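In response to the reviewer comment on reproducibility (Comment 2.3), we provide here a single inverse folding case reported in full, input and output, so that an independent group could reproduce the run without further information from us. The structure tokens appear first.
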């Protein structure tokens, strides 16, 4: 069965560049931040690059890729992450003609997508050979575009991994503190279903950051569920974490198997069943016991009561005074 890529949880750098070939290349971005409101201006076209969904089968690896050994366990873990929250970081490729593309960056993501049998993969198609220009343009657009916390974290991670940017460079260029960059990147370490809640907006980035001090993923997932169910504030979550009150959901208590009936009680139940010609159960609990006598009809009940206590049977025929 073909695995379709999950969408809607984030686009990373794919949100920061055009979705088709640029007809007229934009001027190279300057070293200073753009004037005006970055959020209002929107992303600028990136010279020599555009975003595209590319068939996985149309991509060929880079023959100059220095890495030729890929850890299979790590690839499976990456594939599990992509299956859970989608592919947040597009690969980077260049067109080589006849509908084919050569990988520049992101071979692990491409290989993991193949494991999932994905048909298409998000990619930045790069025409320019100037890595510095592309990196600087994407950093500038990151300052302009409104991304959710997971998209922002994915964009930071790709700029760090694929383009060699540093935390300091990102902090200076997007007008954020270095600690903000670091803490945002840490959101990518949260369990998959917690990331899904953040991307869907059911919990805020502030809530997610408050969960980060917890080392137990199960505790993070449980507290995230409480945030949604109880409407907890970020401050409340921080207090729960700091006081050590955040734990994983308690495991369901196993049902205690009933003790095997004592031989004496089993023998007594058998004798009573024979005597009253019906099924009789004798149970003995910790503090008290009980005898259960089964009957089929009212006539059967009258017969049993008559055998137990003939005087009480008068209630059925109206002879009781």
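Designed residues, in position order:
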């Amino acid at each position: 069965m073909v695995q379709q890529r999950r969408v809607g949880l984030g686009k990373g750098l794919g949100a920061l560049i055009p979705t088709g070939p640029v007809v007229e290349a934009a001027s190279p971005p300057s070293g200073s931040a753009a004037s005006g409101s970055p959020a209002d201006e929107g992303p600028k076209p990136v010279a020599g690059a555009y975003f595209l969904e590319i068939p996985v089968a149309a991509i060929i690896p880079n023959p100059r890729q220095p890495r030729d050994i890929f850890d299979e366990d790590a690839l499976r873990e990456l594939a599990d992450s992509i299956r859970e929250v989608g592919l947040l970081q597009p690969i980077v490729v260049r067109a080589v003609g006849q509908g084919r593309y050569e990988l520049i960056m992101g071979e692990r993501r491409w290989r993991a997508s193949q494991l999932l049998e994905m048909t298409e993969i998000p990619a930045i198609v790069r025409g320019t050979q100037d890595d510095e220009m592309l990196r600087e343009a994407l950093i500038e657009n990151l300052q302009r575009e409104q991304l959710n916390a997971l998209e922002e974290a994915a964009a930071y991670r790709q700029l760090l991994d694929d383009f060699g940017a540093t935390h300091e460079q990102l902090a200076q260029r997007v007008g954020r503190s270095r600690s903000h960059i670091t803490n945002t990147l840490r959101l990518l370490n949260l369990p998959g279903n917690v990331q899904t809640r953040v991307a869907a907006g059911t919990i805020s980035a502030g809530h997610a950051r408050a969960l980060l001090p917890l080392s137990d993923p199960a505790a993070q997932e449980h507290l995230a569920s409480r945030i949604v169910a109880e409407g907890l504030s970020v401050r409340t979550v921080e207090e729960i974490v700091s006081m050590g009150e955040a734990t994983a959901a308690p495991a369901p208590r196993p049902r205690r198997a009933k003790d095997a009936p004592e031989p004496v009680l089993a023998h007594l139940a058998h004798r009573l069943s024979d005597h009253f010609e019906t099924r009789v159960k004798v149970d003995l609990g910790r503090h008290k016991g009980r005898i259960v006598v089964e009957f089929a009809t009212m006539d059967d009940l009258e017969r049993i009561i008559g055998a137990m206590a003939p005087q009480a049977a008068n209630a059925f025929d109206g002879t009781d005074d």
